[in-house]
């Protein structure tokens, strides 16, 4: 399978889940500024909306999946024994999907206008406040001493949160959320996260070198 990624974006969540499952994905870097890919493919043919992640499956039709929560859940569903998502059709899965949707709408998407400086001063303050409150919800969830967001089992949700820890770039002050910060430190040390950082750095560096050659 081929995964199209961009530097320090939520595509890292897909890499983390692939690493948790021991999957070897062919990583392709998409430069969002000059719209080139590290393998020379036209990304508009992969996702006309020009955002990552995009996973090209090794099916006969080379089907393409987009959206972080869709791709990560799809991969996890292929290996149910890994426990990265609850079983399909269960109440636990419905609650889990509720959590993923919350992460997508109240955290991941709230960062984007802040990082791109698209808001008025009032809009910036409002959005940052919403973002900090969303992170505070996660902090409260972790306050009972659980290791991961849903308990002692690492899941797709944890990978997604780590892939969207953009608070420093967004100017959202969350250092006071001690449970969340301790959680991030645990995530930083996880082998699948470390491999994601290293693999992404290599493909990005190779793309930049190729562009400068």
From TrEMBL:
Cited InterPro entries: Glutathione-S-Trfase_C-like, Glutathione-S-Trfase_C_sf, Glutathione_S-Trfase, Glutathione_S-Trfase_N, Thioredoxin-like_sf
Domain GST C-terminal: 89-212
PROSITE patterns referenced in this protein's UniProt entry, alphabetically: GST_CTER, GST_NTER
Transmembrane segments: none
Taxonomy, superkingdom: Bacteria
Occurrences of domain GST N-terminal (ranges): 1-83
PANTHER family the UniProt entry points to: GLUTATHIONE S-TRANSFERASE GSTA, GLUTATHIONE S-TRANSFERASE-RELATED
Protein name: Glutathione S-transferase C-terminal domain-containing protein
Record organism: Metapseudomonas resinovorans (Pseudomonas resinovorans)
């Amino acid at each position: 399978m081929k995964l199209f990624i961009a530097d320090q974006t939520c595509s890292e969540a897909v890499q983390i889940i692939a690493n948790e499952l021991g999957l070897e994905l062919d990583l392709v870097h998409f430069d969002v500024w000059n719209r080139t890919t590290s393998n020379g493919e036209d990304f508009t043919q992969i996702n006309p909306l020009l955002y990552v992640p995009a996973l090209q499956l090794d099916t006969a039709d080379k089907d393409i999946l987009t959206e972080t929560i869709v791709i990560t859940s799809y991969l996890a569903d292929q290996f149910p024994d890994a426990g990265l998502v609850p079983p399909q059709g269960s109440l636990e899965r419905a609650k889990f999907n509720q959590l993923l949707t919350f992460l997508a709408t109240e955290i991941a998407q709230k960062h984007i206008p802040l990082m791109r400086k698209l808001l008025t001063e009032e809009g910036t303050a409002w959005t940052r406040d919403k973002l900090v409150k969303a992170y505070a919800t996660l902090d409260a969830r972790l306050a009972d001493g659980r290791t991961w967001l849903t308990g002692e089992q690492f899941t797709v949700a944890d990978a997604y949160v780590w892939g969207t820890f953009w608070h420093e770039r967004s100017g959202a002050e969350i250092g006071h959320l001690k449970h969340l910060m301790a959680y991030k430190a645990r995530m930083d040390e996880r082998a699948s996260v470390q491999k994601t950082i290293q693999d992404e750095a290599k493909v990005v560096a190779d793309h930049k070198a190729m562009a400068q050659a």
